Amino acid sequence: MMSQTNAAYSRFVNEYLKVMGPIVRRNHGFIDKYIGDAVNPPEIQTIKRQTQKIFEDAARLYAVREFARAKALFEQVLEDLPGDLASKSYILRCDRYASEDLPANWDGALDFDFK
Q1: What pTM value is reported for the model?
Q2: How many domains does the chain have?
Q3: Backbone angles phi, psi at 63, to 5 degrees
Q4: Do 100 and 46 sit in the same domain of this protein?
Q5: Which of 6, 56, 72, 90 lies at a C-alpha separation of 20 to 30 Å from 78?
Q6: d(CA 21, CA 11)
């Protein structure tokens, strides 16, 4: 069960992203991940820093519909960081979108309907 503090924080983040998400997309940007408080063991933090550029390059490729190339880079991140849920999520989306005819106005955004 979520504590009152965590629940309030969750509400704050959701409200913030509801406002900022459309602004970011209108300016041709994307939110590739939300780190939260980024509390990870030091060894995980080190690996995340080491793979950050690869992840960012993959996210840029995803945004311009280069799904095969993006997937390869996300898989490279997973080699060093097997538990990276963001990379796993992007890989699934790369597989999905690579086989779909996307509309011209596709912006890569994914609306979450869960917490």
Answers
A1: 0.63
A2: 2
A3: -65, -25
A4: yes
A5: 6
A6: 15
Residue 99 lies in a domain: yes
Residues 43 and 95 in one domain: yes
Closest Cα to residue 72, out of 54, 48, 52? Answer: 54
CB 72 within 8 A of CB 103: no
**Two structure tokens written together for 26:** 């209108």
* 46 assigned to some structural domain: yes
CA proximity to 92, closest of 78, 105, 79: 78
pLDDT per residue, tens digit, the chain (115 aa), is: 445 566 776 777 778 778 877 887 787 776 766 665 545 667 888 898 899 999 999 999 999 999 999 999 999 999 999 989 899 999 999 999 998 888 888 887 765 555 5
At 114 the three-state DSSP class reads coil
* Residues 74, 58: Cα–Cα separation, whole Å: 6
